[in-house]
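This protein record is not my work; I was only asked to verify it. Would you go through it and say whether the fold makes sense for this chain? Here is the record exactly as it was handed to me.
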Amino acid sequence: MRILLIMDPLIAVPPKHYGGIERVIADLADNLGARGHDVTLWASPGSGTTARLEPFGREDEWTRWSNVRNTLTLTARFLRDRGPFDLVHNFGRLAYLAAIFRRNVPKVQTYMRKVNPGNMRKTVRLGARRMHFTAVSAAIRDTGAPGGGDWSVIYNCARPDRYTFRGDVDPRSAPLVFLGRLERCKGPHTAIDVAQQLKRRLIIAGNISTLPEERAFFEREVRPRVDGSLVTYIGPVDDAQKDALVGSAAAMLLPIEWEEPFPVVLPESLLCGTPVIALRRGGVPEGIADGRTGFNCDTTGEMCAAVARLGEISRAECRAEGERRFSDRAITDEYERLYQRLLADGSPRGR
């Protein structure tokens, strides 16, 4: 198949540090290419996969004007290059596909955030043909499905060869870990609450938000509680550092305070053999087999109690579940089957 993948140019594909869905797109592009498909990637100029890169936009730029400019750039490309692709898969703004809504080419729009169902209705009014929507969790699908359209759920993935299984970590003495953007909605302050209540070491890794209100949150509610002993902050981490950090942890804490779609750190943690303890929000519970690969909790107290139960979890089972459900191969299989079905059926059925 001749496949076009599209992503907003804000972050390179793959990213150097933060950027979950950009990692998924890079893995998908590389896997599809390895299977013999002709893959083109429209993404940030700093991107680098085995796909043919046709860059657009500017990395780290996200303004109203840049969004308009990026949309006009891709519209011009579609109008200039008519028909070179068998299928177009967009992970970016739905507006990027407006120029080809009516073309008789299968189009996949993937959502990694809460969806406005009005956008689905709008595509119908604009005469969209052969449009299929996917979401990275059922929780996200359910926000957009009221608007109609054909939907699938395909989770985010991680590469097993990038994460080292460690089965000999002591759940009683190894540190807990928090990895993600240091924003209130991600819950680093709650992770510290758990660590302090249990007197368990916590290592925090991730980037500090550039948004003024989130930076103020970090300075007020996180930094003063980092003592370098019980609670340590090590900054952003690359893939090798992440592998070492997560693999040596007793558990990954995901004390989220928003409807998290499906964080890539979840499959990354499972592939290391590290259980996940999370608050039950968004699509996160869909990735945790409660009591088998981690624990879904409703309160900070329940998270503390779950830490005491980590000895019940088999780290080998975590790795096996990560490979079975969320490996790059498994998720590429799902997308490839979807592509083939859409190419064979001009009126695709949702599932």
Remarks:
- Residues 64-80 form the longest helix (17 residues).
